[in-house]
Amino acid sequence: MTTSSTEIENAMSNTAGCPFHARSLPSDGTPLAPSPRFAEWREQGAFVPLDFQDGHEGLVATRYDAVVSVLQDPRFSMLPARMPVGPATLDEPKSEGAAAAVPLELPGDLDEAAQASELLNLLTLDGAEHSKLRRAVTARFTVRQARSREPWIRDMIAGEVARIRGSKDVVDLWHDYAMPISARTHCHVIGIPPQKYEDFVELFVEPSTAQQKYDFIRALLEERRNDPGEDVITDLLNNPELTQIEIEGLLRLLMGAGRDSVAYLIATASVALLTHPEQMELLRSDVEGVRPAVEEFMRAGSMFVTLFARTATEDVEIEGTIIRAGTSVAVSPVAANRDPAHWGENPEQFDVTRDAFGHIGFGYGIHGCIGQQVARVEIREAITALLEGFPDISLVSAEQLEPHPFAHPVAVYEAGEVLVRLTTA
Length: 425
Ligand code: HEM
Known about the structure:
Elements: H1 5-13, H2 37-44, E1 47-51, E2 57-61, H3 64-71, E3 76-77, H4 96-101, H5 112-119, H6 127-138, H7 143-167, E4 170-172, H8 173-190, H9 197-204, H10 210-224, H11 232-237, H12 244-256, H13 259-274, H14 277-285, H15 290-300, E5 310-312, E6 316-318, E7 321-323, E8 328-331, H16 333-336, H17 340-343, H18 372-389, E9 394-398, E10 418-421
Parallel strand pairs: 2-8
Antiparallel strand pairs: 1-2, 3-5, 4-10, 5-8, 6-7, 9-10
Helix pairs in contact: 5-12, 7-8, 7-18, 8-13, 13-18, 15-18
The structure holds protoporphyrin IX containing FE.
């Protein structure tokens, strides 16, 4: 069954008793086993109605081709930053990364400069303004840059492996392994000196106010002005096109964005392998296979149920559906990453030998993830080190195997506690 544009318009204007009744994101999914509702929606059409928190009746795109079409179409804007209705309509986002990406509202106690910086968020900007700020940071996130970080990342992870090996028999892979790996790499790439690592964790992993974050950023910028390095902060300070407000805004976004996602992916990939021992054995017998398998971790364990909603600035027709100007569309990487029309048979199956390149786990198009190359290195090295360092590792429990509220209304899954036994009892 497919949905025509007329059916969608009818559904949106008269929802009572209609099979396409405006709906919310389902609550019965987990990171590795998303809700069956997404498959039903994909069957129904390229776009089906979805409610947003401000009462707006918008759409959700679940088919791979429709998702790509929306993400590459400049007629969609990032504003007004609507959030879909999901199982958790949180007052306080639990995910710092997603929270950093789009402020739900400007905190009242922020000073004036910080308020101005807060508005310069890549994920709420379009067109030339977005391109200018994005260009200012992309040079530090190329494939070549990510490669040049590999030795540092490998050494740092070896240190983390030694630390957990010597700590206790049962560890929380998210808290004790994935989180420090992501936070240390974030500091290294951005240019936060090692002696400020604990402060970074306190402010950008633990809850803190936006003003505290800006105070940290400003003090750091002062310190780094006469201390250049191979990092983002040095690039920003040397960029004559940027104002102080823009630099602080970019750093606020970068320090929050993606750090939680890397930790989530390392934890979730570990759960996927530990619950699929035959897949783990495949990689253990050929650790070179971890490099392409990272794409399968991203496809099958995508953190983003939906991306930041895009709103049509004019009437747009995609796959026979007319999306009216002003309509917000939430696109779903989780659903697109399992679309049989794109992935062929068994898209639900976790298969480390699959060619999973082209997944939407890092988004797509002009807002596609800036940090994806370094994230790939972190995930690859973290999983390789686990496979090589802990031949007897076994899963004790993982919160993410049961449905949980999303970590942020945008909507993202949470890694949760992942308890593993490192050696056989
Ligand atoms: C596994 C790890 C990661 C995942 C799954 C991830 C996912 C994403 C996704 C899905 C988007 C697009 C959002 C949208 O279009 O609505 C995005 C954008 C972004 N990501 Fe990541 N990310 C990761 C790691 C990182 C890292 C390590 C950094 C930085 C150090 C980073 C920085 C950013 C930034 C700045 C944007 C906004 C780009 C723009 O609007 O132009 N991400 N990320």
